[in-house]
Amino acid sequence: MAPLNHILALSVILFGLGAAGFVIRRNIITIFMCIELMLNAVNLAFVGFSRYLGDLSGQIFVFFVIVVAAAEAAVGLAIIIAVERNRQTLAIDEIDSMKM
Amino acid sequence: MIQDYLPILIHMVIVVVLALALMGLSSWVGVRRPTREKNAPYECGIPPVGNAREKFSISFYLVGMLFILFDVEVAFLFPWAVVYKSLKWFGFIEMFIFVGVLFAGYIYIWKKGALDWSR
Amino acid sequence: MSTVQASDFICILPQIILSGFAILVMVFEPFVPAARRVMLGWFALFAVASAGAALAWTSTLPGTAFGGSVEASFFSIFFMALFLLVAALCLLGSFDYLARDHVQHGEYYALILMATVGMCFMASSTELILVFLGLEISSISTYILAGFKRQDALSNESALKYFLLGSFATAFFLYGIAFVYGLSGTTNLTALAERIHAQSSPPIMLWVALLLMFIGLAFKVSTAPFHVWTPDVYQGAPAPVTAFLSVGPKAAAFAVMLRVFLVTFAGEGAVLFWLLWISAALTMIIGNLGALAQTNVKRMLAYSAIAHAGYVLVGLATGGEEGSASVMFYLLVYALMNVGAFLLIAHLAGTGEHWTNIEDFRGLGFERPGVAACLTALMLSLGGFPTTAGFLGKFYLFRAAVGAGLTGLTVIAVVTSVISVYYYLRLVVVMYMQEGTPQAPSAPMPWPLRVALAVCVAGIFLLGLFPGNVLTLAHLAAMPLP
């Protein structure tokens, strides 16, 4: 049985990777996947805490996070498709028509 | 403590050595006589048609996204089913409302033509 | 396991009504011919009105429901009334806009209702799971609304940026919740407060958790340095949607901030105080200076919205009953000013929102004196001129801050709001003093929009001259906050 420290360390690493990827990556789909990675790092932390505390509400939280993430993914992909159709690109740097 | 992991280490070493040995042997001993058919992506008898990087119809994505949504909602049915008996009528009605909301969404996407495969 | 009673459902009746009607609008949408879709809008407005009636009933039965996860208190009722008002005003302002720009789809109305449900849950919930769900329901609905003009590249871009940064912020907020949960073993805010006060020395992890939650919420209320998305999103989104999302989700996130930071984590005062202090100062400076350089009205108002979030943060940093009450009063005033301004610009910008540059408003004061007077009143209130509610709102915020000894922050706030007068008045000057004719073709103002604007402008002057009753309500609502 893995101790809480290890689970949290993994969760922090995953969250950090996601956040770093969000800032560094330039492709919208990759950025989107980085967000999903961050959400799953959160899920991992919740499950780890839940087992450590012997309390179920953390796992219930994970349920809701998963469902919300799915809804977010559907909406996000729809928005990305709309952008791609209008601009024929998925590079975030090229989508800046409102800068002064 | 650390010795407990020794069998796993041995196992990993064996796996790596065996895999490398088999792949190395086959590329060293094996005979290669390439033909056009053999180089085709799938050697299953049917000649490949068109480009593999062809754009998919948008309805693939649409159906995929809708699938994710309805699929994940089912996750809520499992915990409900586990405690169904102790929840009695309240749980039944709650789930009825939940599925009812999903059904409303289904009617919506159906009437909107999102499930129309031929579009 | 606690049993569920009928009173539990009464407690969330406004939310139930809104969700029910939202689903109905959604299901009816494909069956209603395009020419008559505006009926769905009126249906949605009826839903908001019934939710308001339900809220009035709920307010007579204060208490908690569903095992202490939702509450009906003056605090929640004040905010829910604010959200319903904003939703109603935005609906009134959208009917003709959607028809004009050829995006008359019923989903718009359903999404406004759903976003309102989410915001209501954010304000009324004392359970972090529910706060998170409310946040996401309102966020996801507003992502779609921002990109509602599917064929319009700017609207697409706005939705994309709002979506990416919004979900990024959500992840931070969630991670903060995860750590708080790990430290205390509960996600119920009331139980959380007790357990955290019981601990003698707050661990570093609690501060990390607080910081993460703060970052998440700071994105939602667009405070510096997490404001970068705001100008693009507000500029690109359809103007009535901008009216909605510059006010609704922001006020809801401030409600969560009030509850979480001033009640649950009141023990971490010192850390939070400096966090809020620095963030408030930065936000006011960046927002007001940024607005000076803008040539696009929507973008200018976006920076102005950032600046106003800064003023509200001053009230949060002040804390206490005085601070919280002035925050609530200001949020109401801000809602009226901002919704009014964006709805008016939605009308003036013409088909496809083609004319949104400040120069496009030249000579409007002579061509359409009524409209120009209306816009002038809104700008004066945003700038904080006396006799308008904008002045009183700022006055209460700053007086509370000085009373609590936050002189430095108050000086920054006053100086930056004096700077802000420049860019608000510039629009007025362009309308009245510059020669020329307005660029946008002059269209008669539809009457639902007239009603919405009348409510906004009348509200500004009423609250500016007779704030007594509303202020008393805000104080009552702030009472349970220590």
Please give a structural write-up:
- The complex is a heterotrimer of chains A (100), B (119) and C (482).
- With 100 residues, chain A is mainly alpha-helical.
- Chain A is 78% helix and 0% strand.
- Chain A has a single domain (4-94), classed as Helix Hairpins (Orthogonal Bundle).
- In chain A, α1 runs antiparallel to α2 and α2 (28-53) runs antiparallel to α3.
- The radius of gyration of chain A is 17 Å and the shape is elongated.
- The model of chain B has no long low-confidence stretch (mean pLDDT 82).
- Chain C has one domain (6-478).
- In chain C, a hairpin with a 4-residue loop joins β1 (63-65) and β2.
- Classes of the chains: A mainly alpha (100), B mainly alpha (119), C mainly alpha (482).
- The B-C interface holds B 90, 101, 104-105, 107-108, 111-112 and C 3-4, 23, 26-27, 29-31.
Properties at a glance:
heterotrimer; A: 100 residues; Helix Hairpins; 3 helices; 78% helix; C: 482 residues; mainly alpha; 2 strands; 76% helix
Helix/strand layout:
The complex is a heterotrimer of chains A (about 100), B (about 120) and C (about 475).
Chain A (H helix, E strand, L loop, with lengths): L3 H21 L3 H26 L3 H31 L13
Helix pairs in contact in A: 1-2, 2-3
Chain B lengths: L5 H24 L6 H4 L18 H16 L3 H6 L1 H28 L8
Chain C lengths: L5 H6 L1 H16 L9 H21 L4 E3 L4 E3 L1 H27 L6 H18 L3 H19 L6 H32 L4 H10 L5 H18 L8 H7 L2 H7 L2 H17 L4 H24 L4 H22 L1 H29 L15 H4 L1 H15 L5 H15 L3 H27 L13 H19 L2 H11 L4
Antiparallel strand pairs in C: 1-2
Helix pairs in contact in C: 2-3, 2-5, 3-4, 3-5, 4-5, 4-11, 4-12, 4-15, 4-20, 4-21, 5-6, 5-12, 6-7, 6-12, 7-9, 7-10, 9-12, 10-14, 11-15, 12-15, 13-14, 13-19, 14-15, 14-18, 14-19, 15-17, 15-18, 15-20, 15-21, 17-19, 17-20, 18-20
